[in-house]
Write a structure and sequence with these properties.
CATH class of the largest domain: Alpha Beta
Number of strands: 10
Largest sheet: 8 strands, mixed
Structural class: alpha/beta
CATH superfamily of the largest domain: Phosphoglycerate mutase-like
Shape: globular
Distance between the termini: 37 Å
Oligomer: single chain
Order of helices and strands: HHEHEHEHHHEEHHHHHEHEEHEEH
Radius of gyration: 20 Å
Number of domains: 2
Number of helices: 15
Amino acid sequence: MTGIRNALLAAVMMAAPLSTAKAADAADGLTLQRVVMVMRHSVRPPTKAQATPPGTTAQPWSSWTTPYGDLTPHGAQGARLMGGYYRTFLGARGLLPREGCAPAGDVVVWASSKSRAIKTAEAFVDGLQPGCGVKVARPASEETDTVFHPAAIIDGDLALKASQRQKPGLAAETKALAKEFATLHRVLGVDIAKQGSRLEAVKDDNANLEGALGIASTAGQTLLLEYVEGKPMAEVGWGRASKADIQALLRFHTVKFRYEVGPPYVAQRYAAPVAKTILAALNGEAGTGKLTLLVGHDTNIAALRGFLDAHFTAADYPQDDPPPGGAMGFELLKDAKGASFVRAFYTAQTMDQLRALQPLTASNPPAYSYFAIPGCGAAPCPLATFQKIVGDKLANPVKR
């Protein structure tokens, strides 16, 4: 019955997150105590002028006015809309005030050192707590960013071997994605599948997926960014990519993460700083708030997914694909006897909500769906069980 209840709850949450969350709380006799969210930054241009290697497109990629890799004004507004929605959503559930400013320390926001993450966090806060002076904490540089960009904790050679052991393997992935490669060929004007794919070791880091599958992942993400930025369809994939095409091509993104940060050896190390912060926030430790927001990158979320060995579906994206501006989150709830529980969720704007910057309201909410926490065996998950699941992996990560 638990599995059926979770499936039904997840389906309903996609349509009416506020009413269903309150109904779920009431049905289980629970009250919301804390929320921690790990968010991907919102819309950005490609991180470099040539999004994919020379010769992989028949025409140059579309141009952007925002500097490469930075948050666009459109992306900032998308994050601001999400913040405004969560002001209502969390206010209605009693976590934050419905009006005015939350007490100092109730909202804590940390961002990665990258400008796009910092600006996303600032825009979200502007919608969530306008004029309240909530500061976004961030490291001075990527070198000092020990949460979102952990360094020297992964053996590059062991990471490569772990990635090479992932199933079903690159050759099988390429064969399974033949239809998607054909679609990409039509859009790019070049057949990149012929290049083959390979994994390459990186010193003190996860392996990189290179060749056809890696290029396809970048191309799919670039097409998505063109779409959700609101570019005219004539400029999205040179007018040759539909929304359905883009959704199909996003499967390459999940393949990339499956091999780069999905292996337990990598995921349990890469995601460890974020996982520690989540535990601290759920435990109410100093420096965390009733709402703790961590704004980083899709790689952080993909690694956390691998750390938990969980699966999620966000809005109208493929399974396990972290959308721009979306977040993986964890609710801490208490029952009448004082026992604590955890529910995991994913929230994101749909592709069209972000593309059109649609107002987010009770009648047009962002997606919000619960997902199972492997090893828990119950829904909601007792806090002590969640602490043990995460704590054991932090204390004894797999060796290879």
